[in-house]
Design a protein that fits this description.
The structure holds two protein chains of two kinds. Chain A is an alpha/beta fold. In chain A, 38% of the residues lie in helices and 27% in strands. Chain A is globular and about 50 Å long. By secondary structure, chain B is of the alpha/beta class. Chain B is 67% helix and 9% strand. Chain B has a four-stranded mixed sheet with strand order 4-1-5-6, with helices on both faces. Chain B has a two-stranded antiparallel sheet with strand order 2-3. In chain B, α14 runs antiparallel to α15 and α14 packs parallel to α18. Classes of the chains: A alpha/beta, B alpha/beta.
């Protein structure tokens, strides 16, 4: 499988704190790759580096053969990032927010229209998109943001806890959407605490703890290797 | 719509909220309303003062005095309206006037004329009915001072005419006359220095207020804009879209500058109505306007352009400084605290422009004032009036250098992790996460 993202020896320091201690992983085209680990393991830091928000202290990150340090703009043109605690501009209507974001990627009115139609279909918010974001529930905002992240059909979608704060029904819907887009060829790099979600969504998984990747592979491979019935037990065994 | 215009439009829409519009309209209406009240109060205060007179003496002297008081005029308008006091006694007159609109009672005691004839002082009695303590009402306190000064002048002139015939009493009382001249640079005009200072102050004192408001408003806008991005968790997403970080910084600064200017303009328009009400009659002195013009103290188009350029660079410095401070804010509330250092930096030159002469300040204070970039438009007002254009241009140059340094620093912060990791927590040292 052709890799869209290559991460090699990635390190990140916050002052004297080493948040990432040289991690390696790859994401293939149309693949859903997940980072799972406890709070403070370094998942969000890794995602933020790939999303060009943070600069790596050491190591190499390449995306479609572009080096992150040398050409972050190429990353930004082809990725979309959904942070764990993201919001949208409260004074804008849902459609205006989507239009605002679409214009950074579209380049033409036709393309903008195409993005908007796709976003409206993903969000499934109907007439509520004509209302201000400030009036939305948490679940509605999350769907709007997911629609924003996927409407451009990015080469790589970076999703940090995509179902964070959502109820069961909304979570199921969001997972279905991610799965559908992955089937259509979009690569996904995601992180989550929810092992069931990871098992359902991911093609491959990396177990991360204290800035190191403990192990990685498909869910099946990992469960076989650790002779565990699910990823939660896999993770506990890997830690031991 | 290109990416930058898209971003700029969003920034402006985010800043122009219903709350801002309400606050601007409310303040404007409030200033206008107070200005109108002040104007009508001032008009009332400038109208002839009604004075009730109780002449218990009834002599020729007392009658003549009241007659001359009634005929005193300024620019063909009566100064006092003398009316007979109600009642025959002082107590009755006071009681009757308590509930009337007349605020002044002058009582000339019995035997006043005879005392005057013997050159003996027999005090007249004055009563001022204080019915409020407003600024307009405070003018009442000066009425009897002026009345007595006028009456004394008439009486003393009369005495001198009787005792020293053939010499004008005015020449005896004020034997030294003066012709006052004011020199500004190479221009000289006849006029009183205190009158000119007062007039120039009345005409230009609002300029520093405009400068202060525009600078503080713009700074507050940009700090709030960045803090709101952080509070609403939109900054991270914005930083990953394909647009240069310098464009993000520039759009925020430009939007804040434009909305800050608009807000300040609306506030100032309201403020002019307010001050116009309080000081309306000062501007009407055309004789003074001519002297001011001849002395070159007026602000012509060139002067306003130079002042505008100076203000523009001060705003740029404020926006760049505010952008850096905005990054330190965690949310909207902490952004309000971070505006305070900038308010102080603007207040220092603002207050100095009112209360002190910059040239007479000690060297260390001069250096501090000059180091604050916002000082320069404040100093520019006086320097332009006095023709010191070189100082103004040096100030503009200094602000340009400061702006370049600040904007490079701001762009650098936005291009690195610092935009997300820099935080200022009160009570602790700066913490980098």
């Amino acid at each position: 499988m052709e890799n869209v993202l290559d991460v090699n020896g990635l390190k990140k320091f916050y002052g004297s704190l080493e948040a990432l201690k040289g991690i390696d992983f790859q994401v293939g085209k149309g693949e859903v790759f997940a980072l799972i680990g406890p709070n403070g393991a370094g998942k969000t830091t890794a995602l933020r580096i790939v999303a060009t928000l943070l600069s790596p202290s050491d190591g190499k990150v390449t995306f479609l053969n572009h080096d992150l340090k040398k050409n972050p703009d190429k990353f930004r043109e082809n990725i979309s990032y959904l942070p764990e605690e993201a919001g949208a501009y409260r004074n804008l209507k849902g459609t205006d927010y989507l239009k605002f974001m679409a214009r950074f990627y579209s380049g033409s009115e036709d393309k903008e229209k195409e993005f908007l139609e796709r976003a409206q279909a993903i969000a499934g918010l109907g007439e509520r998109l004509k209302e201000k974001v400030g009036t939305y529930s948490k679940g509605m905002v999350r769907k709007l943001l997911l629609a924003r992240a996927l409407m451009t059909r990015p080469a790589l979608a970076i999703l940090d806890e995509p179902t964070s704060g959502l109820d069961v029904i909304n979570s199921l819907e969001v997972r279905e959407i991610i799965k559908r887009f992955a089937r259509e060829g979009i690569s996904v790099l995601l992180s989550s605490h929810n092992m069931l979600e990871i098992e359902f969504l991911s093609d491959r998984v990396a177990l991360i703890d204290q800035g190191r990747i403990l192990d990685q592979g498909t869910s099946r491979e990992l469960k076989d290797k650790y002779q565990a019935p699910n990823l939660e037990i896999v993770f506990r065994s890997a830690l031991q | 719509m290109n990416k930058f215009t898209n971003l700029l439009a969003k920034e402006i829409r985010e800043l122009i909220t219903k709350q801002l519009i309400f606050s601007l309209v409310f303040t404007f209406v409030l200033f206008y309303f107070i200005g109108q009240i002040a104007k009508s109060e001032a008009r009332r205060a400038a109208a002839p003062q009604k004075i009730a007179a109780l002449d218990l003496d009834g002599s020729d002297v007392s009658r003549n005095l009241l007659q001359s008081l009634a005929t005193k005029s300024y620019k063909r308008a009566a100064v006092y309206l003398i009316e007979p006091a109600p009642g025959k006694t002082r107590e009755a007159a006071v009681e009757a006037l308590r509930k009337s609109s007349t605020n002044f009672l002058l009582v000339i005691p019995a035997g006043f004329g005879e005392s005057v004839a013997r050159f003996e002082a027999k005090p007249v009695e004055t009563f001022t009915f204080m019915k409020s303590f407003s600024i307009a009402a405070s003018r009442n306190s000066a009425v009897f001072t002026a009345v007595l000064s006028y009456l004394n002048s008439i009486m003393s002139d009369e005495y001198l005419k009787q005792k020293i015939a053939g010499i004008a009493p005015e020449n005896l009382k004020n034997p030294i006359k003066s012709k006052d001249f004011v020199i500004i640079k190479d221009r000289m005009e006849e006029g009183s220095a205190s009158d000119i200072t007062g007039f120039v102050f009345s005409q230009s004192f609002f300029i520093p207020i405009i400068l202060m408001m525009i600078i503080i408003y713009s700074a507050q806008m940009v700090i709030s804009a960045i803090a709101m991005e952080k509070q609403n968790k939109t900054l991270e997403t914005l930083l990953t879209v394909p647009i240069r970080r310098t464009s993000i910084v520039t759009a925020k600064m430009l939007a804040a500058g434009l909305v800050g200017l608009l807000s300040a303009a609306i506030y100032m328009l309201g403020f002019r109505f307010y001050m116009g009400g309080l000081m309306g009659n000062m501007a009407a002195r055309s004789d003074m306007s001519q002297i001011i013009r001849k002395l070159g103290l007026t602000m012509d188009a060139k002067a306003y352009i130079i002042l505008g350029v100076s203000l523009f660079f001060a705003i740029l410095c404020a926006l760049a400084m505010a952008t850096i401070l905005g990054v330190l804010a965690e949310d909207f509330r902490s952004a309000q605290s971070l505006v305070m250092p900038m308010v102080f930096l603007v207040l220092i030159p603002y207050l100095i422009s009112f209360i002190a002469d910059f040239r007479t300040l000690s060297l260390p204070i001069k250096i501090i004032v000059l180091a604050i970039p916002f000082s320069h438009p404040f100093l520019a007002v006086q320097n332009i009036m006095l023709g010191n254009y070189q100082s103004v241009l040096l100030g503009i140059l200094y602000m340009l250098v400061v702006f370049v340094i600040l904007v490079v620093a701001a762009a650098r912060i936005f291009s690195t992790d610092k935009v997300l990791t820099m935080k200022l927590r009160w009570g602790r040292k700066k913490v980098v996460l």
